[in-house]
Amino acid sequence: MASVDWGVIAACVVLAYLAGSIPFGLIFTKAKGHGDIRALGSGNIGATNVLRTGDKKLAVATLLCDIVKGLIPVLIARQFGPVAAAAAAVAAPLGHIFPLWLGFKGGKGVATGAGVLLAYLWPAALAALATWIIVAFVFRYSSLAALVAAASAPLYAWAFADTRLAPLVVLFITLVVIWRHGDNIARLRRGEESKIRLTRRRA
């Protein structure tokens, strides 16, 4: 069995965490004059809350950048073996959820987790994405779609992975994402969760 270079593992963790902690939603909305996204809607820095500004292009840009900041660190870490890839896969979503720059108060890790999964185990990522799209289209709740996609991701990982480590990594990410959706789960149960809107509300 090949030895593990813990210095390389640590570097991959730091890179993934720092990349994951870049608050693109906050940066983009401030740059476009929408103010602090944390003062709007759910207070989240992710694409769904950015969409509440009515700027669909900005929401798409946030979504893509949040995916990429999970994708790239894992692609880099994969060059150093499965342990490095697994470490980066865990660190990137944690960076988004607990960003150093925002007092460790960030987003919910869905898009960044999707980017991680795409780099780490792309067949499972595509299956989870399809699940998200179907649930979001049918029910119009982004949080519900994220929860169902996250809950199904470990099953997809188990189906597609060729190592025992991958499903465990995906399960960890899933549990963190579900934990971060605690408030959304409560609102869904009360019937108070906001639905996805593709147009700006009229004043």
Descriptive account of the structure:
This protein has ten helices and no strands. The protein is mainly α and 203 residues long. The chain has one domain. It is globular and about 50 Å long.
Structure class:
mainly alpha
Largest β sheet strand count, sense and barrel closure: none
Any idea what the radius of gyration is?
Answer: 17 Å
Q: State the share of residues found in helices, binned by percent.
A: 55-70%
SS summary, helix count: 10
SSE order: HHHHHHHHHH
Overall domain count: 1
**What form results from the Cα inertia axes?**
globular
> Please, what is the oligomeric state?
single chain
Overall average pLDDT: 92
Query: How large a portion of the residues is in β-strands, by DSSP E?
Result: under 5%
Distance between the termini: 64 Å
